[in-house]
Specification:
single chain, alpha/beta, TIM Barrel, two-stranded antiparallel sheet, globular, binds flavin mononucleotide
């Protein structure tokens, strides 16, 4: 039977040759918000993996919106030129559909990189004042964020718009709005981080208001012929937090604003969440949104086996899968999955002879001379 994972998918005006996408992955390797050689190598490698779409990592729309001082940004001409170099490199080696995740880290900004201990920076390490919907620290030991005023929100919306314009100038196919994992927009959405008493807190309609304002502003700033998507939470995995029912309503509202796809992730708003980690643990969130909202929906989270990915697509639970760790472990995952599922992978012509289909029977690859 034909693999459904390797059937085409239309998002916005573009046709993807298969349903395997590269999830955004922070590399904590930028300098003053500018991507460099590490990004060229890392993203270049994933761009020739056979995946059909690649989301570049969470990119701060302001300097203080970065998770760490080593995260990329898209707030300066230098950042734009640096990302342009990476994007041009990728374009030179791969037809992959390419976009960037625009983000603000909210109360989780001003942190250490994971391999330097996570946790907040202290003053001597260049800590900065974080922003959030409410002045609630992430957890004990974290600083209280500044509660955003209306003027702060307007300024940040303008920064998202500027970053979307920069992404458009770079020639990216799409931008993705980061509204999960406890960063700023998911802090607005979650009752655990948003205790506002104005029209941006309280009811779901109020909590969604600012993220939807940002989405609308980005959508109108990014060229109409290119698409804008979002990564959203299916759950906070915590008592009193964001729920799958709310995710369905938020996805529906995003769709009404012209959102081309959503990827359903979750967690990160509080550090003591009880996340039921296991293969495909967030797939049910995607399944609900796909069925109830009827928009292009991605599934993410511990998808690592080709048959598992195939059954998610064939079973109608999601339109595409988004892979992070499995692609770090094996950057040829899509090509290997095609072999496992008897499908056609996308190979760069230079690598076509790596496809076992072309290996002569009984011969070991590499032993055939030219
Ligand atoms: C190294 C690394 C960096 C990540 N950075 C981001 C990011 O920039 N934006 C984001 O939305 N998710 C980020 N994530 C989460 C992944 O995109 C994905 O949602 C999560 O890892 C679950 O998928 P997986 O089981 O395939 O790894 C990151 C994950 C990893 C492993």
């Amino acid at each position: 039977m034909t693999s459904q994972l390797f059937t085409p998918l239309r998002i916005g005006g573009l046709e993807l040759p298969n349903r395997i996408t590269v999830a955004p992955m922070c590399q904590y390797s930028a300098v003053d918000g500018s991507m460099g050689d590490w990004h060229t190598m890392h993203l270049g490698s994933l761009a020739i993996s056979g995946a059909s779409m690649l989301v570049m990592e969470a990119t701060g729309v302001t300097p203080e919106g970065r998770i760490t001082p080593h995260c990329p940004g898209l707030y300066s001409d230098a950042n734009e030129a640096a990302m342009q170099r990476v994007a041009d490199f990728i374009r030179g080696v791969s037809p992959i559909v390419l976009g960037v995740q625009l983000a603000h880290a909210g109360r989780k900004a001003s942190s250490h990189r994971p391999w330097q201990g996570h946790g907040p920076l202290n003053a001597g390490e260049g800590a900065w004042q974080t922003l959030a919907p409410s002045p609630l620290p992430l957890a004990a030991g974290w600083p209280a964020p500044h509660e955003m005023s209306r003027a702060d929100m307007d300024a940040l919306t303008a920064a998202f718009v500027q970053a979307a314009r920069r992404a458009a100038r770079i020639g990216l196919d799409f931008v993705e709005l980061h509204s999960t994992h406890g960063y700023l927009l998911s802090e607005f959405l979650s009752p655990l981080a948003n205790r506002r008493s104005d029209e941006y807190g309280g009811s779901l309609e109020n909590r969604m208001r600012y993220p939807l304002e940002v989405f609308r502003a980005i959508r109108s700033a990014f060229p109409a012929g290119r698409f804008v998507g979002a990564k959203i939470s299916g759950s906070d995995f915590a008592e009193g937090g964001w729920t799958p029912d709310e995710a369905v309503i938020y996805a529906r509202a995003l769709k009404a604003e012209g959102c081309a796809y959503v990827t359903l992730s979750g967690g990160g708003v509080v550090l003591d969440a009880k996340i039921p980690l296991g293969p495909g643990y967030q797939v049910p969130f995607a399944e609900r949104v796909k069925k109830e909202v009827g928009m292009v929906t991605g599934a993410v989270g511990l998808i690592s086996d080709p048959q598992q990915a195939e059954s998610i697509i064939a079973g109608g639970q999601a339109d595409f899968v988004s892979l992070a760790r499995a692609l770090l472990f094996n950057p040829r995952w899509p090509q290997h999955a095609a072999v496992a599922l008897g499908a056609e992978a996308v190979w760069p012509p230079q690598y076509e002879r790596g496809s076992p289909k072309l290996w002569p029977p009984g011969r070991v690859a590499g032993s055939t001379g030219r």
